[in-house]
Every structure is written in C-alpha cells, then in structure tokens.
Design goal:
- The protein is an all-alpha fold.
- It has one domain.
- Helices cover about 80% and strands about 0% of the residues.
- α1 packs parallel to α5.
- The radius of gyration is 17 Å and the shape is flat.
Length: about 120
C-alpha cells in the first residue's frame, strides 16, 4: 500500500503541474502594470481548474505523509523523479513541447538513477 501512496503522490503532483500550465496558457501573458498583475493572478487563483490543482497538491502531501509512515525517505524519494519524466511526456502530448534527444537522455538517466537509488 505504501507504494500506492507514492504513486498517488506522483500522479497528483503531475496533474497539478499540467493543469496549472494549461490554465496559464489559456489566461495569456502576465500584464505589465502592478494592479493588472494582481487582478490577473487573483482571477487565475480563483479559477476552478487551478483550485483543483491546489487541492491535488494538498492531497499529494497527504498521500506522501501516508507513504512516509511505512517507507524510508531515502528509499521512497527517488520515485518522485518519475514526476519529471511524466511532466516531460505530458507536456509533449498536451502542449506540443519538444522532446529532444537531450531530454530523452535525461529521462533515461532519471530512470536509471531511480533503479539504482531505490535499491538500498
């Protein structure tokens, strides 16, 4: 069950990042003057999708606490690197961001690091 909590933490974290990027893209560029910036950010923070991302971040914290009751931090934390891998992949799928050779090499290094780091 502990690994399930780690998995939920990763999924909720990635969900939040993807949703926030999506909503920021929909909202447009940050305005130049201070009042408009504050107004823009308040509108963004009150967006139901952004609120769901904040809720996901909170739930990710809760599931991480549950995982920490059974797993050593030094064993569980390397799994969080999968969030980087998933964000790169989902950014490509949903936003058309490029997956370059260097990013693929980085993903492979992360997965290798996860395999090694989670062993002891």
């Amino acid at each position: 069950m502990s690994y399930f909590y780690v998995f939920l933490t990763i999924i909720l974290t990635v969900y939040g990042q993807i949703v926030i990027k999506w909503q920021v893209l929909r909202a447009g560029a940050l305005p130049g003057d201070a009042f408009s910036k504050v107004q823009f950010l308040i509108h963004l923070v009150l967006n139901p999708w952004v609120l769901s991302a904040f809720l996901a971040a909170f739930l990710a914290s809760v599931t991480w606490m549950a995982a920490m009751t059974k797993l050593q931090l030094s064993h569980a934390y390397p799994f969080m690197s999968l969030a980087f891998v998933l964000v790169i992949l989902f950014s490509h799928v949903f936003f058309g961001e490029q997956v370059t050779t260097l990013k693929v090499a980085g993903i492979l290094l992360v997965v290798l690091g996860l395999a090694i780091g989670s062993q002891g």
